[in-house]
Amino acid sequence: MVSVPRLFTRFYDVMQAKINELTGMKRRLCEWGIQKKLYNLEHYGKVTHTIYDALVFNKFRAFLGGRVR
After folding, report:
1. Element (H, E) at 10
2. Which of 18, 34, 52, 64 has its CA 20 to 30 A from that of 28?
3. Strand ranges, E, within 1-69
4. Coil, strand, or helix at residue 49?
């Protein structure tokens, strides 16, 4: 997706607001997923994770239009 930085900042702000609304296990699962995906990016160069993609990040992907990688 090609865009301007301001649009990415708005996406980030909305996603952070959604994460901050979560409580309990849902919030913890989201935090673990973010940590694991960042670890995979730093060490393996890929950001996919089968479990977290299915449980958490498909909702974010749907928010952005569904076909975002």
Report:
1. helix 5-21
2. 64
3. none
4. coil
- What is the structure's pLDDT at 41? 93
Nearby residues of 63 by Cβ (< 8 Å), 6 or more positions away: 14, 15, 18
Ordered by start, the domain boundaries in the chain are 18-63
Q: Helices 24-44 & 5-21, crossing angle to 10 degrees?
A: 140
Angle at 65 between CA 15 and CA 46, to 5 degrees: 70
Res. 68 pLDDT band, cuts 50 70 90: low
Residue with tokens 């702000």: 13
Average pLDDT over residues 34-44: 93
For residue 45, what is the DSSP state? Answer: S
